[in-house]
Amino acid sequence: MALSLSVLSLLFVASLPVAKGAASAPLAGASGYQVVNKFQIPGEGGWDFIAISESTQRLFVSHGTQVDVVDAKKGTVVGTIPDTKGVHGVAIAEDLKKGFVSNGKDASVTIFDLETLKVLAKVPVTGENPDAILYDNFSHQVFAFNGRSANATVIDAKKNTVVSTLALEGKPEVPVSDGKGRLFVNIEDKSLIAEINVKTLKIEQRWSVSPGSEPSGLALDTKNHRLFIVCSNKLMVMMDSRTGKVLASLPIGDRVDGVAFDPGLKRAFSSNGEGTLTVVEESSKDSFKVLETLVTQKGARTIVLSTKTHHLYLPTAEFGDAPPATPENRRARPAVKPGTFVVLDIAPTSESGAKSGNLDKKFERSP
């Protein structure tokens, strides 16, 4: 007998253990999210992060050796940022009308005009494999986190020049900024959060993410000072960003890489590469619960949220069989099937918005 997605979600969530800090057992389907569109994107190659410009509602999708720029309302490709070898991430500076792309294979950052998409400059970084990248509007600096050299290159976003190199004690993953002079970044191989002062460019605090381990995605509720840390041992850890105190942990899916936080709905979303999305509600600043585990698509492990429309966007594709492992490539990955690259458009129903009491109007929905 065929099972519906909602039934599959219910069975999946019912099998999860009760988490530390959970107010109650997870409720499948309570949040009402669903995949409303799949944006087909031509071209070959892998992907990593996805970003959004809230002012233009354009998505910036890392894709092989370029960034595909997609109209988030229509789902159509409207342009590309070329020559971004080994592209990982895109940082958006709305106030400067610029974008910054981290290019892992040639150790550089591409700077482009946010409106015209014209490349303005290409800046070499001071490390190896620039991966996650963030624009901090408090200091007007860009931080490119170099995964293979355990450091971050700091770029003056106005002048397009390198101003400093910040040493880290391990492999950096995703950063977030509180917009008030502090930046937080996961140190994956040490299972730590590092707090950085953007004025002095020094690390001021180091906090363990235990019971989580190998943290990847990171999101922040700036109002309640709550960090949402997703970890490879299938836990989301909630931490006080002022003290480093771990407040709770909740179960999520496998192969997680990203997390997003919706300040309007007070919800965090864990994008799990196994093909699920875990929806967590922040009931109060110290209370959290899993609302739903939504079936998405295998490989959908990175995520971005539009705070204007409350839509979530996750890139993925279909895969072939993995090649045999070799001494040179012990962790051989399956190849992406040509012509299958998509961005999933996930939206909440208007009913869930009404229940939340946090919004005055119904959600915008994709056609």
Give structural notes.
The chain is mainly beta and 367 residues long. It is 5% helix and 48% strand. It contains two helices and 28 strands. It has helices spanning 5-14, 350-356, and strands at 33-40, 50-53, 58-63, 66-71, 77-81, 87-93, 98-103, 108-113, 119-124, 130-136, 141-146, 151-156, 161-167, 172-177, 182-187, 192-197, 202-208, 215-221, 226-231, 235-240, 246-251, 256-262, 267-272, 276-284, 287-295, 304-305, 312-316, 342-348. The strands form seven sheets. Strands 1-28-27-26 form a four-stranded antiparallel beta sheet. Strands 2-3-4-5 form a four-stranded antiparallel beta sheet, with no helix packed on it. A four-stranded antiparallel beta sheet has the order 6-7-8-9, with no helix packed on it. The radius of gyration is 19 Å and the shape is globular. It starts with a helix and ends in an 11-residue tail after the last helix. Residues 1-29 and 351-367 have low confidence and may be disordered.
Question: Key features?
Answer:
single chain, 367 residues, mainly beta, 4-stranded antiparallel β-sheet, 2 helices, 28 strands, globular, disordered N terminus, disordered C terminus
Short summary:
The chain is mainly β and 367 residues long. It is built from two helices and 28 strands.
